[in-house]
Amino acid sequence: MHFRSRLNIKLSLLEENFRKLTALAPEKEVLFMVKADAYGHGMIPIVKFSHEKLGIKEFGVATLEEALKLRKELPHSKFEIYVFSDLQLPITENKEKFKQNRIIPVIATIGDLDYFLGEKDFKHFPLCLKFNTGMNRLGILSKDANFVARKIKDSGRKSIYHLMSHFSSASYPLNNENNQSQLNSFSEVKKVFKDNSIIIEKTSLANSGAIEQGFGLEESHIRPGLILYGPSSLNNENRKLSKWTGKNISSLETYIILTFEVKKGMPIGYGATPCPHDGIMAIIALGYGDGFSTRYQGAHLDHKGHRGIIIGRVNMDMSQILFSLESKEDIRTGENLVIWGNDPREILNFSDETRTIPYEIFCQLTERVPRVYT
Ligand SMILES: *Cc1c(COP(=O)(O)O)cnc(C)c1O
Known about the structure:
Layout: E1 6-9, H1 11-24, E2 29-33, H2 35-40, H3 43-52, E3 58-63, H4 64-73, E4 80-86, H5 92-100, E5 103-107, H6 110-118, E6 128-132, E7 140-141, H7 145-154, E8 159-165, H8 177-195, E9 199-204, H9 208-213, E10 221-222, H10 226-229, E11 250-262, E12 267-268, E13 273-274, E14 279-284, E15 300-303, E16 306-311, E17 319-323, E18 336-340, H11 344-353, H12 358-363, E19 371-373
Parallel strand pairs: 1-19, 2-3, 2-10, 3-4, 4-5, 5-6, 6-7, 6-8, 8-9
Antiparallel strand pairs: 1-11, 11-14, 11-18, 12-13, 14-17, 15-16, 16-17
Bound molecules: pyridoxal-5'-phosphate.
Residues 33, 84, 166, 207-209, 223-226, 233 line the site of pyridoxal-5'-phosphate.
């Protein structure tokens, strides 16, 4: 399988990243976010390695379906799974799946809370609550904390298993006003439960952006996603604030199917884009069918020290990269070409240039791109 586009994933780099994470946030328990197929890296191998080799005991996904897949494929493992957004809890069939598989729903609405507290099947099941401290997406409103405390007491419970909230602006600095007000609001929520003598067993707040800047680390847990896969999650203009030195665990490789000389003005591919200058055209085996988006047109890629540019429309199965004429001896049919490697600056530059984010670039890689683990 040499001549094939693939995502190479080095699990040893995940281990290295995990060591760096624990150095940045010592003593913190890690709830590793592996939603969306572990950000495109393959949820099962990533969780298996993280649990068995790194000792991570808690994982977060977005849907019940993802959680069930984890339980099914790794049946004897005793890690905790949280489902964050797509719960559809008040459906009998789903309720049983949560319960039988010990999958913890992250309760983020009063409706789900009422259902959960009222169900005798959940009587001894861990209660996990997510508050909206300013993200204004999902989450119980901070101002409802007292009301929630009363509901919890009325149900006969004495504790909350895991209390969490989520930053809207962790890719901005700590002094950003949203970060400040969310931190305050979360403290107030915790205080309400304390004042009501409700025990809080675990708390978490920090996602990648907060962890790499060193805030939101007063809680028992952290919830990293992106940084464990490699890149900083900070915006270009704030990236210098990041303390993160992890490596990209993946490299996206393809190969050059064909090279040929082109002249300025020559029509290239679908839409007959005029070639901007004389040069060497390399046709690579990646297109939008692989998740290599049409929006990558115009982005630059380096190969053997030569700067290439994605020219014309990205096709379903191929793309065209134009190099200068001087690179003629170096750009050869049949050779491998790396879109991004283990230096996280490569995917970050690529995502900046294509005005997207590494999260999206990873997630949109399709099944056609084999994930190869070493
Ligand atoms: C996805 C997610 C995270 C992880 O975010 P990163 O930016 O990838 O670290 C943490 N918490 C919640 C609630 C999430 O949805």
